[in-house]
Amino acid sequence: MSERLFGIHGAALTLRSQRMGVIASNIANAATPGYKARDIDFNAALDARLANARGAAMIGGDAQMVYRQPTMPSMDGNTVELNREQVAFAENAVAYSATLSFVQGRVNTITRALKGE
Q1: What is the mean pLDDT of the chain?
Q2: How many angstroms separate the first and last alpha carbons of the chain?
Q3: Mapping DSSP to helix (H, G, I), strand (E, B) and coil, where does residue 3 land?
Q4: pLDDT tens per residue, range 85-94
Q5: Integer Cα distance of 65 and 63 in angstroms
Q6: Who wins on pLDDT, 36 or 4?
């Protein structure tokens, strides 16, 4: 039902939230030796969610989770590049905010329609 009301934006909002958690985890572990930075392939994850919502079988549970390839690997094996993570976090936060604004607008429209305004 939410797919009919919100289109892809409901699934996108959930995925953006999950991605924000993954990126925050990367930032928190920037000084942890051997930590491997991860990210969510947003497009693949969204496609999988939408296919699953339409009744198709999921191919893999964590198929959308990928490890980041460092531009400049550190000596301790940590692949977190703080500048890159901060940019990814900011971009994801802007996209999350835009998606949330759309969903809120849609909810407001439906609420006004139900009230007869």
Answers
A1: 86
A2: 23
A3: helix
A4: 999 999 999 9
A5: 6
A6: 36
- Whole-angstrom Cα distance, residue 72 to residue 58? 35
Measure the CA angle with vertex 25, ends 104 and 94; round to 5°.
Answer: 30
pTM of the model: 0.80
Cβ atoms within 10 Å of 102's Cβ, excluding its own: 15
Give burial (CB, 10 Å; 0-12/13-18/19+) of 48.
buried
The CA distances from residue 74 to 32, 34, 67, 86, in Å, are 11, 9, 15, 18
Contacts with 78 (C-beta within 8 Å, 6 or more apart), sequence order = 29, 30, 31, 32, 33, 34, 35, 36, 37
37: DSSP letter: -
